[in-house]
Amino acid sequence: METVFNQSIWGDEGFSAILSMKSLPDIIKVISRDTSPPLWNIIEHFAFQIFGASEVVIRSLSFSFYLITAFFVFKIGSLLFSKKSGGIVVLLTLFNPFFFIYAFEGRMYSIMAAGVTASMYFYLKIFFGEGGKGARIGYTIATLWALYSHHFAFFAVATQGFWWLYEFLIGHRERAKRVFKTFLLIGLGYLPWVYPLYTQTKMVGGGFWLGTPTPSDFGKMIFEYLAEGIRNDNLKLPLLNIPLHQAALYVVFASLAVRKWWKSIKKTVILLLWFVGPIVLTWLISQKFQSIFYNRYLLYTIPAAMIILASARSKISIIPLTALIILFGIIDYQYFTHPTKLPFKEYSAYVKSVKKEGDYLINWNSSSHHLWETKFYGIPAPIYIPAGGGDLPFFVGTALMEKDDIIRTIPKTADQVGIITSGPVSEINIPGYSERDVKSFGNLKFILYDK
Hints:
With about 450 residues, this protein is of the alpha/beta class. The protein folds into two domains: about 10-335, no CATH class; about 345-450. The protein is built from 18 helices and eight strands. It has helices spanning about 10-20, 25-30, 40-50, 55-80, 85-95, 95-100, 110-130, 135-145, 155-170, 175-190, 195-205, 215-230, 245-255, 265-290, 300-310, 320-335, 345-355, 370-375; strands at about 235, 240-245, 360-365, 385, 405, 415-420, 435-440, 445-450. Helix 4 (about 55-80) crosses helix 15 and helix 14 runs antiparallel to helix 15 (about 300-310). It is globular and about 75 Å long. The two termini are about 40 Å apart. About 40% of the residues are buried.
């Protein structure tokens, strides 16, 4: 049975996997020319060394950090409220539809969420618990973990900085002074990546693929994080005929409406800061500078929203919360058992079976190319960009591309060319060749052309 655990990898996952197969020095060298820090690829590298490189290994690695995130969510819920609240928030976080998607994504999102959530736990323990030196050490390690996982962890640290200012001015000033020393230690630990961060930021500032977000985009992200992360209009609530993702959002609103907002207001404020702060910061930056506003980059804010939902409950809160967990569970089960990624395993097996000696395979550069999938599944197929077609943008993985990964002309010796694409067949034009056969696997297509 195919599930999201063993479904085919897609482009970004393939890029990470190909990179993680390299030596550690090469990983650092390549990733410093891309747009991310190196921690995910370093850990994936060792996972491949021990367990081999497969879809299940890739997804299991991500899932393990998802579970680590859930552990620290429980710790935060128990620290700020009660173990019962911690238990409820674990279920809400594990089943949150948007968060659930990236529990199986072979990229750095779940490892970032684990680092940020652990960082928040130790930070909150310092100011809301009896956290001493051990909490500060834990905070240092977890925060560096988060920062070396994804650059967007900086926005979580920024929200911690806002709260630190409050504590320094009118709160636990002595604790705030000790935390400031910890900030300096974290800065020292991040020094090795400061120059790569500068070059990566400069590169993104020169042009990126994201458009300027609107107020509607802001609201959409909030709703996705709260309940609508998996939109399946075919999955509807009986009788009412409402899509489950919409019903789940209504239940979230009901849970928030009956929450005792006046109870533990200080704790609620810092959770709101964690949830909304990074979203607001990236939205504002995207208005004046290069847009960086993208939902998967900020998913580490979801646990804060789930903690708010599960805490300061009224007597009737258990009704909408139970309904919400059930709705989340149904949505997730449907997603888990109905993989949505392109079927590249099946596709690559077919291509290998029909490829003859002397055939030349190419990736057609449509709205996206599939170089990383073809490399992962062992199909040699460079990207075809005709002479005068320009260069590829850096954000499609050019830092990892080798000299032979892009071709400008089809070799004259190629009597038959196989085209790999998920774009429309009508856009393909290879002078001197005519279409002979098309085989489709969903949106994936393999087209054979004869000279």
